[in-house]
Amino acid sequence: MALAESPWKSAKDSPSRQLLWELSRLRIYEQEEFYEQLDRESQEREAAHKNALAIAIARHEQVRKDAEAERDRQIKLEAERREAEARQEEERERQARAERENAEKQRAAERAEAAARAERAATREREAEAARQKAEKDRRDSQAAEAKKQEQEAKARKKAEDERKSEEAATARSSQKTQPIIFPTQQSLTSNSQSPLHQLKREEEHKRYLEIHKSLKEMRNFMTEQAKQNPKLKSRTGDMRREIKKSIGQLREGKGANTVPHASIQKTLKEAVASFPQPTISLANFTASPQQDAQAPALLVFLLNHLSKSVVAQFIKEAAVSPKIADPIGTIAISIFANNEFRVNGHSLIDILIAKMHVVCPPLFGIYGPEDTQEGRTRLGWWREFPEGPWISEQAHQDRMTGLGAGYAALSLRNFEKSKMSNPYPPYHFWRALTAIINVPAGQVTETHLVVLKALLTNCEARFLEFFGEPARKLLQFAVKEYPKRAPKGSVAAAVLSNLGETMKKDKKLYL
Questions:
Q1: How many angstroms separate the CA atoms of 215 and 197, rounded?
Q2: Pick from 496, 501, 406: which is nearest to 459 by CA?
Q3: Contact, 439 vs 486, CB < 8 A?
């Protein structure tokens, strides 16, 4: 900054005065310079402060934005967490609801089964009570008439003995000309003992069928080894077996109700014959009368074995509760074994199914034994809860025998007159079963025999009479009136069986 020149510099003034003036101006200049420096420093500090403030504001804004972004992210994560928890809770509720529904269905099924069992027990009790009342009435009537009969019986005894001898002679001559199963005479119906020779033949036949059943079990190992060598066979074997089991489980009452499962079984067996003709297996161990050089596709025999197993299981499970359901099951089973496509050299493989019936219900084939011994129960087909475990209850055993008796009647009382196929198990087998049970020695008659006999006769009267006519009527009469008298004292099953005649009269208008 230039110093102003003194207005007195050219004046004629003293030098000291001029110097004073210049010094004052210099002082003023220095002060102005000092304040200007202060202003510059103040401006610089202000600018630095503003810059620092701007930076702080920018940083604050960035922190705010980051905080807001983090808050939004946390809110989103929380929303997703809550949504996931809601979905999990909904899934848990759905599963719990499904479990509750399944449990309720199971409880309902159990209640229905318990109610059905209770109803059956009540029905048996009512039948037993009615039978006891009828038996008491018959006893009183019999006692009242006994005095009048004594004199007549004395005169008729010799005549009856003569007739018995002549009938036995006629029966012996007839047995040499006809097949073993013939209509029995009145004497054979009322006999309290069996021919030792006939019983021996029954035991041998029963033993043969048990051997067939054992061979069928051993065949599983053979099929397992074959499946290891043929992956395609291994894959299809399991599928076919499951398809047959499913179809048998779908059988129901009603016309046309079983068309689909029947067709499914036939399709599966036809595939087995067409697609897996090898390996083959000898039928010598799977028929009661072995055929020479008879070979059959092993898979066909294997599947027919599983078909038989499923059929027997359905008899036990379904027919025990409702004996009428045995009829469609038996119809389908017999039609399969009658099918010419599943025969070998014209021979049906029905013995596979009958072998299983021999195992589960021996009384059908004339087998007897005491129910109060281990060996006796085994001979009668009394089942265990599991292998080597305790015996099933008496009620469960009688339910099994009811289902199996009804099932055997459904198998053996089939009419093939209008069919192009031949019956693989003709009705004379039903007659054999009845007479085998009826001819059990009086001291060997058990509750099992009585339950099986009632199951055989229930709902089958019309077909039985259709096949055998008047002899069937006589056999029915003996079964419901005379046979129960051979039962152990206090037998409930005998009372129920003796009451069956009244049921036939009331429901079927059948008078014995």
A1: 27
A2: 406
A3: no
H-run or E-run covering 282: strand 280-282
Tell me the CB-side half-sphere exposure of residue 27, using CA atoms within 13 A: 6
Residue 350: CA count within 13 A, CB half-sphere: 22
Among 430, 474, 493, which residue's Cα sits nearest to residue 190?
474
Residue recorded with tokens 């017999």? 334
| Three-state DSSP class for residue 5 | coil
Question: What is the H or E stretch that residue 297 is in?
Answer: strand 295-297
DSSP state of 350: T
User: Please, which residues have CB within 8 angstroms of residue 402's CB and are 6 or more apart in sequence?
Assistant: 319, 320, 323, 451, 452, 454, 455
Q: What letter represents residue 476's amino acid?
A: L
Which residue in 300, 310, 309 sits closest to 236, CA to CA?
A: 300
Distances (CA, A) of 152 to 141, 330, 500: 17, 48, 30
What distance lies between CA 14 and its chain's CA centroid?
143
C-alpha to C-alpha distance for 459 and 456, rounded to whole angstroms: 8
From the list 247, 245, 248, 239, the residue with the least C-alpha distance to 272 is 239
- Is 3:29 a contact under the CB 8 Å cutoff? yes
Decide the pairing of beta strands 295-297 and 280-282. antiparallel
What secondary structure letter does DSSP report for 382?
A: -
How many whole angstroms separate alpha carbon 336 and alpha carbon 340? 9
Closest CA to 441 of 369, 360, 378: 369
Q: What is the CA radius of gyration of the chain?
A: 50
Question: Going by C-beta distance under 8 Å and a sequence separation of 6 or more, which residues neighbour residue 245?
Answer: 306, 310
Structure tokens at 446: 């058990």
Instruction: Name the DSSP letter for residue 180.
Output: S
pTM metric for this prediction? 0.64
Q: Omega before 279 cis (within 30°)? A: yes
Element (H, E) at 296: strand 295-297
From 309, 304, 298, 358, select the one nearest 336 (Cα to Cα): 304
Instruction: Say how many residues make up the chain.
Output: 512
Q: Which residue has the tokens 């059905």?
A: 116
Please list, in sequence order, all residues whose beta carbon lies within 8 angstroms of the beta carbon of residue 487, skipping any fewer than 6 positions away.
445, 447, 450, 493, 494
- Give residue 345's region: left, alpha or beta (phi > 0; psi -120 to 50): left
pLDDT per 10-residue tile (average), the chain, 512 residues: 51 74 84 88 90 91 91 92 92 91 87 83 79 74 66 55 44 34 43 65 92 91 88 88 93 87 94 90 84 81 95 91 90 94 91 95 93 91 88 92 95 90 93 93 91 91 89 90 88 87 74 59
Closest by CA position to 456, among listed 438, 472, 433: 433
Whole-number Cα distances in Å, 228 to 223, 234, 269, 271:
9, 7, 21, 20
